[in-house]
Each structure stands twice: as C-alpha cells, then as structure tokens.
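Sequence in, structure out.
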Amino acid sequence: MVLEIHNINNRGNSSLLDTYTHSAARAHSSWSNAVVYQVYPWTFAEDSDRQPQLGHGSIRGIEERLPYLEALGVNAVWLSPFYPSPMVDGGYDVADFKNIHPDLGTLEDFDSLVRAARRRHIRLMVDFIPNHSSNAHEWFQKSRRREGEYDDWYIWHPGIEGENGERQPPNNWASVFSMPQRQARARGEMEWLRDDEWTPPLPAWEWDEVRNEFYLHSFAVEQPDLNWSNPYVREAMKDVMRFWLDRGVDGFRIDAVNHIGKNMKFPDEEINTAYNEEWSDNPYDQIIRHHSCNYPRTLHEYIWEMTQVLKDETYEHRDLRIILEAYMGESDLRDIDAIAPEVASTFNFGSLMASWDANNRKIQMDYYHERLLREAVPNQVNGNHDKSRLVSRLGDESARAAAVVSLFLPGMRFIYNGEELGLADAEIPEDRRMDPNGLRDPERTPIPWDDSLPNNGFSNAQPEDLWLPVNHADSHKAVTRQEGDNKSSLALYRAALRLCHDLPAARTGKYCSLQTDNDQVLAYGREDEGTGAQLIVLTNFNHEHAIKACVPESSFVIGEVVLSSLEVEQKNQRVDVRVGVTLAPNESLVIVRA
C-alpha cells in the first residue's frame, strides 16, 4: 500500500491556536440552521421488500423512511456506524472502513440513499471512527504479524517485567469500558477487596500471543487503538474520509476524537483522589486523563489535519461539516473549537449533562454562547445512542419543555431517533443484551412505526430474531398513533421545527440572555439584526405549580404565544411579557412580538 504523505509544518502549540483562530470562515454555512436527525441503523427500520426479514434495520429501510424525516422538518441525517463489523460494540468496532455491513445492505444501497436524500434536500453525515478499528481488521492482523509498513499501525509495547517475572502493562492506563468491573464486584467476584477500596478499572493493555507484545485498547479488547503518531495511519484515515465524501456524504460525526491524542512516552496517569463510586459507576474515572487521551500536543494537530480534508480544493464548492465527540472540560473544548471553526466544532454536551433546573441551565447556555467564536456554528443536543433517553431522564412533560428550549436555540439541532416520539428506555432481558457494558441497549431499541404485533411495524421477523427487542411499553407512542394527535410529542416537534423554519428570529437570530423575576423560570431571546424580528422562550421548571413570570428587559411588551410545549399550537394568545406570563408546570412557551 503506497500513500502520499502531506508535509505539515512543525509549529508550537500557541502558534497553532493563533493560526486556527484567524482562519477564514465560510460565510453563511447552511449547517448553521440544520436539523440533524441521528439514525441508529440497526434498529431504525427494516425495508419492507427484504425477504426473509432479518430482524434488524437496513440502508433501504432508512431510504423508505425519508418522507417521514422530511415531514418532521429534518434537513440532515447522521448515520451511526453501518460498516462491516463483528458487532462487539454496536458497529464501532470497524472491520472495513470503506464498505457496508452485509446485513445492512450494499454500497449500491448507500448510493441510492444519498441520491434519494439529495432529492429531498436532506444531507448525510456519517460516523467516522478514527481512534480504533476491530481486531478483525486486515490492518490489525498484518500489524500483529509485523508485516511491512503495518508493523506500527497500532500501539504496541513489550511491557515491563513484574515481580513474578511475567510481563506487565507499561502503565496504569485504563479502558473506558470498565463498568463491568462494578458489576463483577457486586456479584462477589472480588472478595479480596476491602470495603473501603475502589473497584479497579480494566487495563487498557491486552497481551497478544501472536506478536508477544501488549496492544492498547481505549475501549473494548476487540477495539485496538490506531497509532496516530504514524503519518501513514493518518493518511489512511483521511483517505477513508475522501472515500465517503466522493460518494456524496456532506460531513462526519467524529467518534471519541479526544482519544487519538496520546502522549507516546506512556507516563502513568494521575489518580483522581476525588473519585467516589456513588457519583460514578465507571472505575475508569479513577484516573485523570492527561496522557492516554486529551493530550493537546498531538490532539490539536491531528484534528487540524482532518479538517483540512474538508477544505481541500476538491471539495471547495461544497458546504461540508465535522462535529466532534469529545467528553472534556469546557476550556479544552474551547481550544478544540478554535482549530477550524469554519468547518468543525465539538458537541455541546454541556446541555446534555447539566441538571434540569433553571439556574444551571441558564449558566450553561450563557457560558456556551459567550465562548463561541464568531466563525463557529453552535449546536444543541438532548440525547444520543450512549445516553438514557430524554423522557427517562426528565419525565414526559419536562422532556417536551427541554425540546422547545433546545430547538429554538441557534445552530445545528440534533435529534436522536425516537426522541421526537417521546420514547423511553426499555427493559432489556440479560440474554438479549448487545452492549458489552450492559448499559446502553435500553435507548437503542427499535422505532415503533405502528402499534401492530409483534414488532410495531419495525420488522416482520420473529421477535426472538430481532437485534434488540421492541419496547412494547411504548407501543402507544407509535408514529401512526401520534400522527393523528395534534398534541402528541411528534406534533410538538413538527410544529416547533416548522416555526424554526418560518420565523426569521429562529432562523438567524442571535442568542440573547434574559432575566426573569422568578428563579424557577428560564428565559432567553433570539433577535435577527437584519429584520429586527424577535422571539422569547420562557420555561417553567416547577413540576407542581403554575408560575407567573415577567421579563423586564424584553425588547417588546405585547407578545403572541405561538407554541406551547404542552398544548402545541396556540392561536392569537396575547401576553404582556413585562407584566407577566403564566406558565403551567413544566411548560415552555415561544412568544413573538405581537
């Protein structure tokens, strides 16, 4: 395999950030008002023509449901992994970065999906997994046998000699997937631990009997980390990006991007003395990650390289975008967002992680929008395939309020499939679990397209053959049921997204922090500088009582309520925002100048 290596000038870290910050922005990116719908391909929809029905989703099934997404108001779709994979980690253990899992379809099916989406003005964003591959990948098999240039495509180490003469891992780096350790201890499998001792995390190193060395795996044992310090690896991964861009995709969601930045001197990580098993069920959090990931000296350079693929002259006529998954501190996220803000930004997980109360939500929102660079495209997210569903975290009514708060904020709005239906987490029998951690299956169950038996319109396969079982507790939330209910969760999302398209303030208005006279009511505004159009979003965080609140610094006095999170559409309801607006418990209102 011969790869062209593009030279990158060595720069100090501070000059790098200076260069990033002053890069030229792509003016008026169409992504600045995108509604991005995340599809989990394995449980979204099986195409009706497939015979026999296999019990999991398909690429053709996604294409069949494009009219539903268009009616919802979606103009971009993010596809979670669809690559060939042993499926140890839901497809994030990739065995071939340039193909389709045969159970999901073919490259021809993918090309058809691209064309069909484009006809409906829907862009496609695909999951890109740069940190690791499957241990079944050809690259890893060649690397473990030390074949030619692939010798150091992964991170290998001979280890150190232990007290008993056996080889030991070179440091204390731990696997993110250490949650099963807590479960094992609960089963009584770690009797040697004292009650006051922490549960040990799983090491991030695995001994390989073929190569006789340890390899690094930040996640599952079957997901060896690629060696991004090798320029040939970087070029191979950028070539993967070009492969999908050339097939018509419009962007990438970059998985676990902070893990590609490592200190290749392999020092031990610092122990987190503040760790408490009551607030974290993952022993991985016992270490503070400075070297095993988040390492800025390498991370910033590698991200910069990936962003340059989108800015290549081959694609300069296209509006392409990267969204970066990185669970890091706000200051670290700010540094990453400064790398290439005209094409790339990190997920706004602050809104996802913040507790649901008016004060914390306001602090998070204000800080996030204050720190945004002028060239950046903000984003809003309430859930994804790794987090408990919004309804299960907040309850039905608060989830509806959270949707309104999120959808009317500036930037890209992310909706996880089923979120618009108000789906809840499912109870998954132990023998049906697919997640190696045993935790994330409840939010990944099939979409209920109708309330028919046995599988709510998702598939005609036998229930026991489904990749994950249907959550029959949510059968009453099926699409066909909600389409006939003008106050349903689906009706709310459709009405909100229609307003986001129709109202100038919601399309292009800047974020305005507003105060209310009640600490349980959150307010923010949007103001379009060109037209002067304005709107206010008011949300009552009290679960039991109606509250009357005023917005003394509002730029208008008499407003019209155009949306309620509880009642959905409102007709000609006039309010005086400076005298006070009454909100029901858990209600969010959108108000425009009358």
